[in-house]
Each structure stands twice: as structure tokens, then as C-alpha cells.
Amino acid sequence: MKYTTLLVEIQGKVGLITLNRPEALNALSLELRDELKEVLVQLESDDNVAAIVITGNEKAFAAGADVKAMQGWSYLDVYKSERVGAAWEQLISCRKPVIAAVAGYALGAGCELAMMCDFILAADNAKFGQPEIKVGTIPGAGGTQRLARFVGKSKAMEMVLTGRTMDAVEAERCGLVSRVVPAGELINEAVKTAARIAELSAPVVMMAKEALNRAFETPLAEGLRFERRLFHATFATEDRKEGMAAFGEKRSPQFKNR
To answer: What are 58-90's pLDDT values in tens digits?
Structure first.
């Protein structure tokens, strides 16, 4: 698979997507968004791929939207364009686990892209922020909503209203990222983590992801009911039988994704 703004490779059962506009700090142009949507569709439909990693380079995961390209847009240009958010909808609806491996700047739409993934591994040089207020606009791809859910109202409000960035240590402390690793080890660690997930039962992983995502959308009682029903559903899978049998026999399970 060859793209203009992305590098895509398959490592075992892991699809690795690298944002590749280094001259623009991986600013998320419409072309990049179009290509990201296309590759997500392909990886989602590829039965040989069980997990996905999205990353940038050591200097920038993505330093925001392409402000120069957006400068001349009108209200109707933004409102009528499906291209602006199509990639985001594709990512949000992806049933396979998606890990963001963030080094350097993850600002504006770059921070929003990272938050759309299932979890974030951060390099020790990562910086996160929603600086849209500095150019006269606000986050438009979930920045006000997801950031507040991750870090709480007070910190999110400060970051969005001032444009302040947070470093990797603060991001881990407040729950925005799951772990911080040395920058030189980030990609290997992200792929290794994705590969661990890929070795598990794919349908059960999907159920676990779906249940966790429901926690952000429903009251606790409804979320618990939804989780319980998915738990019941795992008992209809061959992989649940194999996993428990392997546990009892003290051996590694051989999941068949059935």
C-alpha cells in the first residue's frame, strides 16, 4: 500500500500507520485525512490484521490541522465538507484496537486524533495541547469533549482557554496517556503491545473494547447491564472454551477467533 502522506506496513498481525508530512510537522491536511480513512477501511477489513498503531515521527505526532489550507475557508466550506471529519468517523467506528504512539507534538487536531484512539503510549518528549484559541477558533474534532473526560473539567478548561501544552509526565499523571516510554523505544513498544493484543481472541477483544467505550456513553447501571450481556456472549465462543481449558491445563491457549 503506497500513499502520499502516510507510510503503511504490516508487522505480523499489526498494521502500523505512520503520518508522513515531516515538512509540516505532520499537519493533518485533507489529503492526509482522505488517505487515513482509506487505510483504516483496508486494515479493518483485513482478517490478517488484528490491531493497529498510528504514529508520527520523533518531532511530531501531528502538530494540528493544516491552518494555512484552512485560512480561506468559509462557514459553508466547513459545514458542507464531508472530508473534514470522514477519517475521524472511520477511526471512531473501527472495531479493532487502535493505539496512538505519540512522540513530540500532539497539538490541536493531532491531540484529538490521539484521543480518538483506544489508548495512548507517549514518548518522554511528547507534548499535548489544544491551542486552537490562539488562532481564533476552538477544537472541532472532540477536543473539548474527550479532553474533559480524560483529565477533568478544570485542567481541560485551562488548556483549551489558554492553549497551554502538557508534557508526557503530566499527561500520564492525569490519565491522558497509559504509559510513558523513552522516545527511542516508542514504536517498538507500541507494536509489541499491539502484537500482544493481536494474539488474543479477536471477537472477545472487540467485545471488551465495545464495553469500555460504552462507559463514556451511558449511566453506570446501563453500562453494567451492557457489560453483563457481552460477558454472557463470550460463552457462545469457541475461544472462551479454549481459554478456560488452557488455563486449567496450564498451557498457552490457541485462539481461533471463533
So the answer is: 999 999 877 777 778 888 877 777 777 888 999
Task: Tell me the whole-structure pTM to 2 decimals.
Answer: 0.94
What gap in Å lies between CA 19 and CA 87, rounded to an integer? 13
Distances (CA, A) of 96 to 41, 67, 92, 142, 210: 11, 31, 10, 20, 10
Looking at residue 1, its pLDDT comes to 64
Cα–Cα distance measured from residue 10 to residue 244, given in angstroms and rounded to the nearest whole number: 30
Residue 43 near residue 180, CB atoms below 8 Å? no
Query: Could you tell me which residues are beta bridge partners of residue 14?
Result: 11, 51
Strands 165-167 and 127-129: antiparallel
Closest CA to 93 of 25, 147, 59, 45: 45
